[in-house]
Write a structure and sequence with these properties.
heterodimer; A: alpha/beta; eight-stranded parallel β-sheet; 10 helices; about 30% helix; about 15% strand; B: alpha/beta; 11 strands; elongated
Chain lengths: ~325, ~230
């Protein structure tokens, strides 16, 4: 199904300049130092590529889990997970870990202290509906600000503390998050992939970025079911700082294996170990990730931009009125 | 020896040190069982005091603590002569907190170990999602006490507001005064010998004298078949 993201195209390259080859692209999580901070400011978390994984397509008990985590590590893609899920992995497979605290969960010291970034999730799920909701012990934004200060002090001064909010008309929430000195925001979209939902994602990201006028590169992590390579790039141009690869991984990788209980038991079980199935390959996902990165690099080179942070929606043109309205950009002029 | 200004028996001014530095020193502090407690003076409502302490240390604090006092406490014994703000003892897993004053809302929220005693009143949502800790409040508590409680003991030594035990699924609630309204998911239970003994021990630990177990009623969540 065609969606508004398909009706966006990148503007033409500037004329008369040679194309620029890009060595690296990075989004940087930077934030103002907290009161009493003792860090030098050189320890800011560096996001290697503008991708992340928040709802992995398999369980930590699945055979493909180590390979998936290893792939994330190789690409420098952060994974939102708890410590227990990574404990069984070899050191070479452990990716950068983000922590999340839901509204009805306690803080856990080890989860906070060992994470590269900590999200205070402010989403209440009732059935399929997600609504904004403070954690149960917090009543308003000033209290959330205090909680962020305390958490930052426990986590260590250089760990970014973010706020997770359901996508929608988030302008006021973004402004409040900025006032509460959050270091990043997670926009949580529903896990569906129809064309209308993709329009909603486009509008949601654009609205969130438009609200960040006070801090130009305020990190917006998008948790949305994006599958198409150019949709990733366009969302980054519209305002996302990083986009989840979970839906793409779900599409590329085989369905999670069943639990070990399916292994036959009985008299023969004592004769030897049951031959376990080989771990599913993650190379289809690896190929896709490389394609996203090369697509992004190529687009930046065509636009003659040296950094990903320079990419914004001014580099996009809309082919339809709908796409133009959804993300507030200029429609392509049509010659009569 | 460390270069920390905090040593057993030393008194320090929190105002001069700042919360981040003070907490860092408190987390590094180590003391033997017979050594005198560290005293922290000059509390003026600073948020996030004495958070995340994992060593078995004894700390006396004098003044008014702000929000999240003793958050993520794992082993320290904190004795506060004064009031504390909201979320006192949030997510604590061990140790003890004694507040010889009043506490704000959501005291002992998500606490899954240790002990919290309050000599004064507690505002709303006291024992929110309590999951294993023991909590004693001597004076009145606000609405929605023990909301979402999963396990542990909550002792309420005086009157209780509306919605006691809303969405409660486990644990034991002891109440001495009147209750404005009780959630449907709670039922009054018979005080057994073991309950009475546990209650007595908790009252002693909180330093509350004059209250006897027979003055209390006991509430537990209904089992599925009762609902």
């Amino acid at each position: 199904m065609r969606c508004a993201l398909d009706d966006l195209i990148f503007s033409a390259a500037p004329m008369g300049e040679s194309s620029v080859e890009l060595a690296s692209h990075s989004t940087v999580l930077s934030w103002p130092m907290a009161t009493g901070n003792v860090a030098t400011g050189k320890k800011h978390f560096q996001q290697a590529v503008p991708l992340w994984s928040r709802r992995p397509p398999m369980n930590p008990t699945d055979a493909s889990w180590p390979a998936y985590c290893g792939l994330l590590k190789d690409f420098g893609i952060p994974l939102q997970s708890n410590v227990a899920a990574l404990e069984s992995l070899s050191v070479t497979n452990v990716p950068v870990r983000f922590a999340k605290r839901s509204i009805d969960e306690p803080y856990v010291a080890m989860e906070i202290e060992t994470a590269e970034a900590v999200e205070i999730n402010c989403v209440k799920k009732t059935g399929k509906l997600s609504v904004a909701h403070f954690p149960h012990e917090i009543q308003d934004w000033p209290e959330l600000k205090v909680a962020i200060e305390c958490l930052r002090e426990i986590a260590s001064s250089h760990t970014p503390i973010g706020i997770g909010i359901p996508a929608g008309d988030v302008a006021a929430d973004i402004l409040n998050a900025l006032a509460a000195k959050a270091d990043y925001v997670v926009l949580e979209f529903p896990e569906t992939t129809t064309g209308t939902d993709l329009d909603f994602i486009l509008w949601g990201v654009s609205t969130a970025r438009a609200a960040c006028t006070r801090i130009a590169n305020f990190p917006i992590y998008v948790d949305a079911p994006i599958l198409e390579l150019d949709h990733f790039v366009k969302l980054l141009a519209v305002g996302a700082s990083a986009v989840t690869i979970d839906a793409l991984a779900r599409q590329c990788l085989p369905a999670p294996t069943t639990a070990p209980s399916s292994i036959p038991r009985g008299m023969l079980s004592g004769l030897g170990t049951f031959p376990s199935a080989p771990a599913p390959s993650v190379s289809p996902l690896e190929t896709k990730l490389q394609e996203i990165i090369s697509c992004l690099s190529g687009q930046l080179a065509r636009l003659q931009l040296s950094e990903l942070r320079q990419l914004n929606k001014s580099h996009l043109r809309a082919l339809t009125e709908t796409a133009a309205r959804l993300c507030g950009i200029e429609p392509l002029a049509v010659s009569v | 020896m460390t270069d920390s200004p905090l040593q057993p028996g030393v008194s320090l001014d929190a105002k001069a040190l700042g919360v981040a530095a003070l907490n860092r020193h408190l987390r590094e502090l180590q003391m033997a069982e017979n050594e005198p407690a560290v005293r922290i003076l000059g509390l003026m409502g600073q948020h996030g005091l004495a958070t995340g302490i994992a060593n078995e240390v004894r700390i006396e604090l004098i003044g008014m603590a702000g929000s999240n006092f003793g958050m993520l406490n794992a082993a320290a014994d904190l004795d506060l002569t004064g009031d504390a703000g909201s979320c006192c003892g949030h997510s604590m897993t061990g140790g003890g907190i004694l507040v010889r004053g009043h506490v704000g809302h959501s005291a002992a929220a998500f606490a899954h170990g240790g002990f919290i005693g309050v000599h004064g009143t507690a505002k709303s949502a006291c024992g929110l999602f309590l999951n294993g800790a023991d909590v004693v409040v001597r004076q009145a508590v606000g609405d929605f006490a023990a909301r979402g409680m999963r396990s542990g003991n909550l002792v309420l030594g005086s009157d209780v507001g509306n919605g006691l035990g809303q969405d409660c699924t486990g644990g034991t609630i002891y109440v001495r005064g009147t209750v404005a309204s009780i959630s449907d998911c709670l039922r009054e239970a018979r005080m057994k010998e073991a309950d009475s003994m546990r209650l007595g021990l908790l009252l002693v630990r909180a330093g509350i004298k004059g209250a006897v177990a027979k003055d209390f009623r006991i509430y537990r969540p209904r089992v599925k078949s009762e609902e």
